[in-house]
Amino acid sequence: MKRLAAIGVHAAILLAVAFALYPVLWVVSLALSPHESPGAIPWPTEPSLDAMREVVLRTDDEGRYLFLMQTGASLLVAFSTALVAILIATPAAYALSRFRFVGKDASQQALLATQMFPGVAAAIPLYLILDALGLIDHLGGLTLVYATTAVPFAIFQLKGAFDTIPRDLEEAAMVDGATPFEAFRKVVLPAARPALAVTALFAFMTAWNEFILAATFLSREEIFTLPVVLQRYVGEHRAQWGHFAAGAIVVSVPVMALFYWLQRHLVGGLTAGGVKG
Amino acid sequence: MTIPRAPGERALDLGARSGILAAPVTAKPTGNGLTLAGVRKRFGETTVLKGIDLRAEPGELVVLVGPSGCGKSTLLRCLAGLETPDEGGIHIGDRDVTRLPPKERDIAMVFQSYALYPHLTVRHNLSFGLELRKAPADLIRQRVDEVAGMLGLEKLLDRYPRELSGGQRQRVAMGRAIARRPTLFLFDEPLSNLDAALRTEVRVEIKRLHHQLGTTMVYVTHDQEEAMTLADRLVILNGGLVEQQGPAIDVYREPATRFVGAFLGSPAMSFLPAEATETGLVVGDATLESPTHHRGPCTLGMRTHDVVVDAEGPLELEVRVVETLGHATHAHGLVEGQPFVARLQGHERPAPGDRIRLRPVYMHLFDAESGARIVR
Q1: How many angstroms away from the CA of A110 is the closest CA of chain B?
Q2: Which of A166, A179, A269 sits opposite B115 (nearest CB)?
């Protein structure tokens, strides 16, 4: 009886896994069979790495490796967005968490309000602003645009994290001989490390995956970010599903790598044990 | 840069921790005395400290005790520099520290929550303060080893706070304070997160550390037993004012106010309305031999051990509840219609409903209006 129940449970779990993995397997299968149209069973009949090779090694008229340049552009924009978000949001969130100042409530509500509109809503004003700054078709401009949504979100995330760090820790540090800034740098920041990691990862991923604004503000092919590149494979006249799938897999790799690298930070509870039991 | 040492400071005794009752090393008082004059502190509309005057001699263990909301924690935070008084002055030794930030006061504090740095090992928790002061590495190592030896933390040095039990965390918190060798220690209810058995043990340990270090300590608690057992000088706070201060035994024996009498001792002091007359102290239908020349209405206060069972005694206790402690029995009931608790011998076990006669052996008299102690 027990054995039967175990088999039932495992069967259910396997079914759930298959359900979750199906789209992924489908993309993998597509990427490996560039000469077939997508079928219902995700299994390549003639596995081939041609699509992958063509996507990654694509060159432009001057013989430059386009995909590598585009990957570089994507990485640069995503890392810069994460960096800008962390650098600006950390002190802002700490101030909102710890200090009382004029305009505190108003600024928090204003930050919240910015989160209510989709980024596209601001596309036209952003275009005009970037144009005035000469940052159209420029990765710096795109980073700035991403920061406008990443920073408020990061402030919220980090304020929540700082709120959970007991003030006793900073006070203990100050009694131990720290200045308020040293207490922040040597005690609060390390205690908030998991939250900082998650926030940075979120900012990175948002920028890495964003499509519409990138497609709006970039026109030079060599600085396209990868979502824009991918979209180009499925055009009006021709859909290169194999290339699209191959590109999609390559695009997922950095995100998976980041998740793997940050997972020890993602496991929360670093502050556990600092105060009380 | 070297760590400033107080005059007369000596190396800590490494061998002392072989059981807490190993020969107590009584150190000469070191560190500085403490003077507070007219300290006031307001938070918005609420005045928490209403003018605190306090003195501690060098090397004294001062306990601030009072009910919650009496201002004891705020007072401690003012001493630490975590709050700045609105009025009044704080001197450590002859230094005016009223407006100094915490780092310039040369104090250490043990927090109720322990406030251990979660991202640092026990070793680095202990050395954090010394590292901030850029002490040389060999001095840091020596201090950490000394402190770990004193508190039995040697085997825990490479663990993180989350890997420690409550009692161990408490030790690390004390160790962190000791490692810096401050001129003044502050303790903010350090035992309240420990279970009862451990609390008594650590209490004795703190007393031993105080003997061993000889440094001035200010200790905040709401637990009157903790306060009594630890204090060289007991300071009772109530409503933002010092109700009474002095050697613990004096405060216990001669409470200056009815509040202090009620606060110290468990079970609490019983109070009976009384009238001091020419013929004696009239309590309801009973007349007691008056201990005072005062005349007029007053409040008679008696602790549980201030009465003995005596068939000829003038007071009658109508027993309601009996608590058996083994070495003693507490009889709760009514005397002249007022709640009263008497401590009987362990073998005396009246039943609820019994009436027993009691003879006072000690009486506290308080002014019926102000609650101030009536001196004979």
Answers
A1: 27
A2: A166
Closest approach of chain B CAs to the CA of A178, in angstroms?
A: 6
Q: Does B117 touch chain A (CB under 8 A)?
A: yes
CB nearest A191 (choices: B81, B109, B119): B119
Paired tokens of A70: 């585009």
Helix axes B122-132, B137-151, angle to 10 degrees: 130
Mark yes or no for CB contact A176/B128 under 8 Å: yes
Mutation target to probe the A interface, by most A beta carbons within 10 A, among B111, B144, B181 is: B111
Q: List the domains of chain B with CATH numbers.
A: 18-257 (3.40.50.300), 267-367 (no CATH)
ipTM of the complex: 0.82
Cβ contacts (< 8 Å) between A191 and chain B: which residues? 117-119
Contacts of A265 in chain B (CB under 8 A): none
Q: Calculate the alpha carbon distances from B66 to A150, B56, B73, B179 in Å.
A: 50, 18, 10, 30
The closest CB to that of A276, out of B109, B113, B128, belongs to B113
Alpha-carbon gap: A171 to the closest alpha carbon of chain B (Å): 7
Cα B368 to Cα B242, B274, B296: the distances in Å are 20, 9, 9
| All domains in chain A, ordered by first residue | 2-48 (no CATH), 65-266 (1.10.3720.10)
Separation of alpha carbons A164 and B21, rounded Å: 41
Question: pLDDT by residue for chain B (376 residues), tens digit each?
Answer: 444 444 444 444 433 444 444 444 555 666 688 999 999 999 989 999 999 999 899 999 999 999 988 999 999 999 999 999 999 999 998 899 999 999 999 999 999 999 999 999 999 999 999 999 999 999 999 999 999 998 999 999 999 999 999 899 999 999 999 998 999 999 999 998 888 888 898 899 899 999 988 999 999 999 999 999 999 999 999 999 999 999 999 999 999 999 999 999 889 999 999 999 988 899 988 888 888 888 889 999 999 999 999 999 999 999 999 999 999 999 999 999 999 999 999 898 899 999 999 999 999 999 999 999 998 6
Confidence (pTM)? 0.81
* Cβ of residue B114 closer than 8 Å to a chain A Cβ: yes
Say if residues B82 and B102 touch (Cβ distance below 8 Å): yes
